[in-house]
Design a protein that fits this description.
With 237 residues, the chain is mainly α. The chain is built from 10 helices and no strands.
């Protein structure tokens, strides 16, 4: 936290102070944010992809610890090392996100990151006690790396595309939809694990995370390298 505060204090850019509405109405503001997101095909695709990814990820995570302990026989240290590898992947993704987006383009990165790294999660249900656990753990680290690269790219894209006065409403709408499936993912993961077993649930989660790239791939983001200016909301180039 101290390091975070120190880095934040080094920011020299001053954001303009928002002008509050004279007659704020929650219902109207929620509707306006929802309409803006649904009207723009790129933002709509990002929101749909996030919803599918988060639901599938939580399904996967629900049975991951069960699989590591019961099927692979890992103890606390082994489980901790696997999860720590995911953290290292996320850190590496944060370091590479800006460079990758600049090289590949914001739009393509959003769907390519998921399409390239999510299939690696299928290595886990294929793993057996022994060296293959290390390969599966590397697959989870790749998932974290790709997830951070994707989130950084699409967050920057969304913020650049959205007018200042709608930023809060747009972010709230996107988070409500994309995070709304998380509790459902936990329920589905538990039900699937009880019915089909931990390994089968991991397969389902891996397939769902990979398919989450489909909405953005089929959207204008497939070829958009940079976001449209805020002065032209609802369009991309």
């Amino acid at each position: 936290m101290a390091l975070s505060g120190l880095l934040a204090s080094a920011i020299r850019t001053r954001e303009p102070r928002p002008v509050p509405s004279r007659h704020p109405r929650l219902g109207r503001e929620v509707k306006e944010g929802l309409e803006f997101v649904l009207r723009d095909p790129a933002l709509r695709a990002v929101m749909a992809g996030d919803a599918i990814f988060n639901l599938s990820l939580v399904m996967y995570q629900t049975m991951l610890l069960v699989f590591l302990e019961r099927d692979l026989g890992l103890r606390s240290l082994g489980v901790g090392l696997v999860l720590s590898g995911m953290g290292c992947g996320a850190l590496l993704g944060a370091l590479l996100a800006r460079r990758v987006s600049a090289r590949v383009g914001q739009g393509p990165v959003i769907w390519l990151a998921s399409l390239i790294t999510c299939p690696s999660t299928a290595l886990m249900p294929l793993a057996r006690p022994g060296w293959s656990v290390c390969v599966a753990a590397a697959g989870l680290a790749a998932l974290s790396l790709g997830g951070v690269v994707r989130v950084v790219a699409q967050s920057s894209f969304q913020q650049a595309l959205t007018p200042d006065r709608l930023l809060g409403r747009t972010s709230a709408t996107a988070r409500f939809v994309s995070w709304g499936g998380i509790p459902l993912g936990g329920l589905l993961g538990g039900a699937s694990g009880s019915a089909f077993g931990a390994a089968a649930t991991l397969w389902i989660g891996a397939a769902g995370m990979t398919l989450s790239a489909l909405p953005t791939f089929l959207s204008p983001l497939r070829t958009v390298r940079t976001s449209a200016p805020r002065s032209a909301p609802g369009s991309a180039r």
